[in-house]
Amino acid sequence: MPITIRDVAQQAGVSKSTISRYLNGRYECMSLETRQRIARVIAELDYRPNAVARSLKQKRTHTVGAIVANILNPFSTSIIRGVEDYCKKHGFNLILCNADDDPVKEREYIEMLTAKQIDGLIINTTGGNNPLVKEVNASVPVVLIDRKAPEMGLDTVTVDSDLGARLAIGHLVGLGHRRIAMFTLPCDQVSPRLERVRGYQAALAEYNIPFRPELLVETDTQLETVTAKVRELLARAPGERPTAIFGANNLMTMAIVKALKRLGVAIPRDMAVIGFDDWEWAELIDPPITVVAQPVYDMGIKAAAVLIKRIKAGKPPKKPATVVFAPQLVVRASCGELLNA
């Protein structure tokens, strides 16, 4: 016969309700010694709670969904690692979906996850389904990550992208650069992209450098496209072409580095490069890439913590939580020394 909660309670010398509270992570008024004894008995008996029965009783599935805009982006994988680690530690399963920056695919995943009766949703939205996401939040807690949309009234975990762009441009200006190009994905009302562009423009103004629209390049991250855009900049007259390029995310920065190498442009001798986002290979590339790093793993942890707190509270907060992390400049070798020193 299968082991029941009654068997565990009898062998541990506690009530069934105490075992139930233990299984649900409610340790108030439960001593460490009691928790350890229950854990030992559960292991000895190889007790496995009936997930379906628990879900029906608690009206929870102990499952959360996460939708990322692009799983190929190392930013997304680091975020999800933090989300998963926190969820696992607190007894929640995770269903991960990749929207591929496609609002149609994103909508399908939102509908699928809600149909599966998830307890909550973490989403790095494409921006194309905000009304639906807001509607879902009326019945299922939603946390936005790396996005800001105050009009939606959702809990939000993000980074100060404006500050990050200012740090990048300030570093380049400090090395003597004044003709600084920025490569970004089309903004399309995606908040971090807009903030980084605004930070770029504000930093130029702060250092009395005129903003030149031709140096703000909107493009996808495909190598062929980026190479063509870089070639256009290099074709400008010597006094007009940029001496530095700022990549607005890690996929863009990787494409810029590949394009420059393909075109025979030495980094940083012929062109300084700095990127927004750190990634595993950034310090292994020749030369190692200077970046503005985001604490992405910690952002994932925090998003999951905010979500699970909402789930356990059982009701929306009076005011949505907004958590903004600070970026950090990580200086490596891709910007070189002081220009013309």
From TrEMBL:
PROSITE patterns: HTH_CROC1, HTH_LACI_1, HTH_LACI_2. Keywords: DNA-binding, Transcription, Transcription regulation. It comes from the Bacteria. GO terms for molecular function: DNA-binding transcription factor activity; transcription cis-regulatory region binding. InterPro entries: Cro/C1-type_HTH, HTH_LacI, LacI/GalR-like_sensor, Lambda_DNA-bd_dom_sf, Peripla_BP_I. Residues 3-58 form the HTH lacI-type domain. Signal peptide: none annotated. Residues 3-48 form the HTH cro/C1-type domain. This is Transcriptional regulator, LacI family.
